[in-house]
Amino acid sequence: MNDLEDLYRAEYGRAVAVLTRVTGDLDIAEDAVQEAFAAAAARWPSHGTPPSPAGWIITTARNRAIDRLRRETRGRDKHAEAALLAHDDEPHDEGAVEDDRLRLIFTCCHPALAPTARVALTLRLLGGLTTAEIARAFLVAEPTMAQRIVRAKNKIRDAHIPYRVPSEADLPRRIDGVLAVVYLIFNEGYAASSGPLIRADLCAEALRLGRLLVSLLPAEPEVSGLLALMLLVEARRPARQTTGGALVPLDEQDRSRWNTGLIDEGVALLRDHPGPYQLQAAIHAVHSSPGGTDWTRVRHLYDRLLAVAPTPVVALNRAVAVAETEGPEAALRLLDALDLAKYHVFHAVKADLLRRLGRTAEAAEAYDAAIALAGNDAERGFLTARRQTLTGGRTH
């Protein structure tokens, strides 16, 4: 069943995108794909996996969608059924990029939807993430996220939002939401909200979409900035875990294991532009330097980033740079002003600063909070090991 779960992670988004194109209905598309995977789970263990598992899923989902439309229309309206029966390889005048998943992203990122709903819906439909995983990424309760996703799907249906890439003239106005979607897909792949630390399928999907966006808008610096950021972070992935799966922090990684080709590709995309993705990419370029991190440069870049993206998470990352340039006491004062009690990284940073100041009891308490909130196994293991160094192996 692990093979089927892997297929679900890798192909769910593509299957939903294809079915959305041929049905024009997100609910029908998603229901049909889910039914196809359920059928695979029931059939494949006894009959064997078909030669083209992804093709089997899409064909089965398409047939389930046709059956549903036949039941619902009962002969009154055959237009939807006819669309399904048409050849999938017919040309579609739906924008400059003929890519089903990219069309679905632009549909889910329509301005009629709230920004958080755009990202959440696309993560659900394109990445196949569960509602719980998306809720963790947004630091909100699962029922809240479930309501957002349902409302977003209803809005697309009721407002007749088209399934297409916008015209070239409309692309710049629509790109910010799309970039946010791709970045969150990458983040979920690079630091999964539950289970293992890394989901390589999501990282690969985000990079693929990032490259498509650069080909679509090569002159947009923030599009290039996002791809540069993802490439520079992805380049360090081989050194991010031990052979046993333990998390290795940046300052302890074997830099010889980094992918220099990805680093070079990312650096080549950097522009002198004050946008948040270009600035974050520049920060990671400094971290990726063969000679080690220039923390003064990182602090300067975070000052610029905080000016254009004044979020608590950016302020937290800036505090880490302040700790390296001004000391942990100065950084700890900055943390006191941040409202990130539900974010495990906040508590992990606080714990490390308190440890460096010799405030062991407070550090242990902060580590406990971080461990309780951490979603994936590797991060919990790393934090637990750090906490045990404070107490000689004892935990509460």
Tags for this entry?
68% helix; 396 residues
Question: How much helix, percentage-wise, in residues?
Answer: 55-70%
Query: DSSP strand (E) fraction?
Result: under 5%
Poorly predicted parts: 87-98
- Main sheet, how many strands, which sense, barrel? none
Choose one word for the global shape. Answer: globular
> How would you spell out the order of helices and strands?
HHHHHHHHHHHHHHHHHHH
N-to-C span = 37 Å
Family: Belongs to the sigma-70 factor family. ECF subfamily.
GO molecular function: DNA binding; sigma factor activity
Domain RNA polymerase sigma-70 region: 7-74
Domain RNA polymerase sigma factor 70 region 4 type: 105-156
List the helices and strands and how they pair.
Layout: H1 2-23, H2 26-47, H3 53-73, H4 79-85, H5 100-108, H6 115-127, H7 131-138, H8 142-158, H9 171-190, H10 200-216, H11 221-234, H12 260-268, H13 276-287, H14 295-308, H15 312-326, H16 328-335, H17 344-356, H18 360-373, H19 377-391
Helix pairs in contact: 1-2, 1-3, 1-5, 1-6, 2-3, 3-4, 5-6, 6-7, 6-8, 6-9, 7-8, 9-10, 9-11, 10-11, 11-12, 11-13, 13-14, 14-15, 15-16, 16-17, 17-18, 18-19
Domain DUF6596: 174-271
InterPro entries: DUF6596, RNA_pol_sigma-70_dom, RNA_pol_sigma70_r2, RNA_pol_sigma70_r4_t2, RNA_pol_sigma_r2, RNA_pol_sigma_r3/r4-like, TPR-like_helical_dom_sf, WH-like_DNA-bd_sf
Pfam families: DUF6596, Sigma70_r2, Sigma70_r4_2
